[in-house]
Amino acid sequence: MAPQGLLGSSISLSPLPNKYSLPRNSPTISTLKLVEIEKTHFKGNPGLRLKASMESSWLTEELANNKQNITSGTQSGSDLFNGMKNSIHRGNPGLRLKASMESSWLTEELANNKQNITSGTQSGSDLFNEMKNRFLSFKQHKFLEESEHFQNLAKGQAPKFMVIACGDSRVCPSNILGFQPGEAFVIRNVANLVPPFENGPTETNAALEFAVNSVLVENILVIGHSCCGGIRALMSRQDEVNPSSFIGSWVVVGKNARSSTMAAASNLDFDQQCRHCEKESVNRSLMNLLTYPWIEEKVEKGVLSIHGGYYNFVDCTFEKWTLDYEESVSRKGSDMYCLKNREFWA
Questions:
Q1: Does the chain have fewer CB atoms within 10 Å around its N or its C terminus?
Q2: Is 170 marked active-site?
Q3: 166 a known binding residue?
């Protein structure tokens, strides 16, 4: 069976015609190594496909007969993708490239395209180089240009918001809502859940205590989001929680949101149920905030407001609402809550 090529077609490894025969010590024999590398290491791994220009006429014609083009394609990704590639190679030694580039023309071609084929692992330095460049850009264009603001921040913070958001890498509150340094005290966890007071200490309520009682924030904003893996884990869980699962033990905090979702959306498919629960869990977290005596006291006095938000990163929309404390308290015990000041940003 012929080995598969980079684009899925076959490369014939049968003897070449006489007119393509090579001198015994021809340097272009290294091109055959590329075919072997492609066959051995890159089959089934399109992200690692080798794209090297085959300028030798005999090989070009042979590959053309098999409808296989091996090109010197430039890398469209940034240095971040290089760092990702390094991470994949580091954790998968079977994918490491072990190619000896003996032909000078091929070495030059690869160099021109900034494609290095090395033996052994590569470090993740490109990833940190990109991070360093971002930091230096921040310093030059933000820190130094607004030095007075940052000098004031060095003396203390007085943010108006505390934000509770998911740890999902696609949901960065400062990025999507434009919070600047000093404007929001942020805690992130799986599925942006707030456990009730009676559950005991967690890093989330420790942050709540500090933000509300020491920093004196005026608003708490709980942000849910689309395609939340934590909510899917919550909706998928069995009644019995596996005690060895940290995720399962954590998302059970949202069990009331799951129950109300199953009651209200049992006729919907699983994805739609998850979408419903992504918002319902935010509202249940708002109610859980009121189980903290020092939070409810400030809300009752009107010096602290509690808000919910939902970021849909599929179509880039944001919904915002506020918990109506008086109406919700009047319904306490009925498992009901009341919302106000709904807004939709698109």
A1: N
A2: yes
A3: yes
